[in-house]
Design a protein that fits this description.
Blueprint (H helix, E strand, L loop, with lengths): L1 H18 L1 H8 L21 H15 L3 E5 L2 E6 L2 H9 L13 H4 L8 H11 L5 H5 L2 H17 L5 E2 H18 L12 H17 L7 H4 L3 H39 L14 H7 L1 E2 L2 E2 L2 H32 L1 H14 L8 H4 L3 H14 L4 E5 L4 E3 L2 E3 L4 E5 H5 L18 H4 L20 H18 L13 E8 L3 E8 L5
Parallel strand pairs: 2-9
Antiparallel strand pairs: 1-2, 3-11, 4-5, 6-9, 7-8, 10-11
């Protein structure tokens, strides 16, 4: 029996070496921690958890000071180091999204986040008009309404400690769902909303799977309790999407009939054009003379909601945390709002553009905390990145956090300094160093929309939860405590003492 086992293991090793020879040669030429044949960096498995993953990556970047590699079993992960390598990787058309990203397909199908090639190009071109500044400007009343609901919820806590990420998640989900689908979700006012619960659960489970190499294989994952929970949550999300699509198709038909009817009738006061949503754009778009399929429409809307809600919620959590931690910055923002928006009752994109220091503050939040610390690409053939040759099947990880905290590009990167993004200093930054929304052709299509939400919510909160900061005896308005959380890295306890202005 032992002889048979030895022969079997020897054959398996020979097959592995033959099948992975090209990848093995690439990996052997790159520095990295010690690895066991077939198993890889087994000592790293315990560190590939959300609460320790990014610290480990930062430690390796500091240790090696150059591009390094990790082996996850037979899979080769290469972490790029320089802006030049990053630029080449993000602009190389033959690279695709990493295999790990494909695990998101159960929720978002083949949407922009993971699609590539011709489909990505045509869908990206078709979706771009939905994010035109003129369209985004029409979203401000909706965002403001949900911001007011958030402020009301915070007032109702009467200064007690709360987990602010839950409030922000519901508020931002409501705003994004209404502006992208035309559906009023009301999850902030209804904490038992089934869609919000399912969406939150699905996001959490997908993130846990992506950071657990033991669940990479579908054969294993589909036999776990996590898979059953994920399937139940995704079913709720897809059911809502199907009903919303039917509603919007009917609404567009009625709107078209109304336009036809009013075109031949005298203009009546009170009739106005309905605000256009992302879903409307998808329903009316034609590519090569054909409309998008129902599946393609669902994939793109689910992608937009999934990618937008989690990242914008995490960013807003860190905005509030920074307001509480850096009192001098908070005071500067309050004074700017008082000076620039004194006579402004209704927030618009134009009025928000007056707040130049708010723009610097949010840019520094996005750099300092790096909401999306990593992005990746997969090689599909022989590729040269940074002068190094890669074969097919190598995962290239771009360390956005490492670049944003590199002393070579940022003076005192461990300090929170919004003024580093003043125009004279910003011009000194090389390209592909500061990329809060990634870079290259695949740069986030909804970046301006995310910034609009962040700025509006920040202004609404500061307007409603401030004291006279110029009095040095007043206590801190926003007090936050940061603790670990498995979903997005941090959980923020937000305590406030308020005097409504």
């Amino acid at each position: 029996m032992s002889l048979v086992l030895i022969i079997f293991l020897t054959c398996a090793l020979c097959y592995f070496i033959h099948a992975k020879w090209d990848i093995l040669r690439v990996g052997c030429r790159i520095r990295g921690p010690w690895a066991i044949p077939l198993v890889g960096n087994v000592q790293m498995i315990s560190k590939l958890k959300p609460e320790s993953l990014f610290k480990s990556i930062a430690d390796f970047r500091a240790k090696y000071g150059e591009t390094y590699r990790l082996w996850l079993g037979p899979e080769l992960w290469v972490f790029l180091h320089s802006p030049a390598e990053t630029r080449e990787a993000l602009n190389e058309p033959t690279l695709t999204r990493p295999v790990a990203f494909q695990q998101l397909s159960v929720l978002i199908g083949n949407g922009l986040l993971i699609s590539h090639g011709k489909q990505w190009e045509t869908h990206r071109r078709a979706l771009s008009p939905a994010f035109h500044p003129n369209i985004l400007n029409t979203f401000t009343p909706v965002i403001a309404q949900h911001g007011d609901e958030l402020v009301g919820k915070l007032h109702a806590t009467k200064g007690n400690s709360i987990e602010v990420s839950d409030y922000l998640f519901a508020c931002i989900l409501d705003a994004i769902v209404e502006t992208s689908m035309g559906k009023q979700l009301n999850s902030l006012t209804n904490p038992h909303n089934s869609y919000a619960h399912a969406f939150h659960k699905a996001s959490e489970l997908l993130f846990k799977r992506m950071t657990n190499p033991l669940l990479a294989l579908d054969f294993i994952f589909q036999r776990t309790k996590m898979y059953r929970e994920l399937s139940a949550s995704v079913a709720v999300i897809h059911q809502l999407m199907a009903s919303v699509i039917d509603e919007r198709i009917e609404a567009l038909k009625q709107q078209e009939a109304l336009v036809t009817e009013t075109a031949t009738a005298p203009a009546e006061e009170g009739i106005r054009k309905q605000r256009r949503t992302l879903l409307d754009t998808l329903l009316t778009t034609q590519i090569a003379g054909e409309q998008l399929t129902r599946s393609e429409i669902c994939d793109e809307v689910n992608t937009f909601v999934f990618a937008g809600v989690d990242t914008t919620t995490a960013a807003m959590c860190f905005v509030l945390y920074s307001l509480g931690k850096y009192t001098a910055e908070q005071q500067k923002l309050v004074l700017e709002i008082e000076e620039q928006l004194l006579d402004v009752a209704v927030l618009t994109a134009d009025t928000l553009n007056r707040l130049t220091y708010l723009d610097l503050f949010i840019k520094e939040v996005l750099r300092y905390y790096t909401i999306a610390p990593l992005t990746g690409r997969q090689t599909t053939g022989d590729t040269v990145i940074g002068g190094r040759h890669y074969c097919a099947g190598v995962t290239l990880w771009i360390d956005l956090y490492g670049l944003a905290h590199d002393t070579q590009y940022f003076e005192k990167p461990a300090e929170f300094q919004p003024l580093r993004f003043a125009q004279t200093q910003k011009e000194q930054l090389p390209p592909y160093v500061y990329m809060p929304f990634s870079g290259g052709p695949h740069m986030c299509i909804g970046r301006n929309y995310a910034l609009l939400i962040m700025k509006m919510l920040t202004v609404q909160i500061l307007r409603n939860f401030v004291v006279e900061l110029r009095d040095p005896h007043e206590e801190l308005v926003l007090q936050s405590q940061m603790v670990l959380k498995s979903l997005n890295g941090f959980n923020l306890l937000f305590k406030h003492r308020v005097k409504t202005v």
